[in-house]
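Problem: given the chain below (123 residues), write out its structure.
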Amino acid sequence: HLVESGGGLVQAGDSLRLSCVASGPGWIHATMGWFRQAPGKEREFVAAINWSGVGTDYGDFVKGRFTISRDNAKSTTYLQMNSLKPEDTAVYYCAADVHSTIAVVAAAEYDYWGQGTQVTVSS
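Solution.
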């Protein structure tokens, strides 16, 4: 069970931090990912982090603006988003891959998904 929070309406150049709280057994060993989907577009990989937090991967469009992290003691994964642009507007989803030990890019590999949180960036 994954629950995202932290979305909202911001202006271009602002920052947001998304949170994803996981519940249930096995989460601490899971790879966690963030994806996003804008209206009329396919779901897009944003970032992923492995169970230890050492392995991370990012979508090409991130270009140093976003940082994924996790706090296993709090069962929470974060996505810090800086220098937001209008094209970052989308629903952001948290996902868990309970079978992998590395950061995973492919959405099909993930086993569990949250409901999503809306991020809207105005120009």
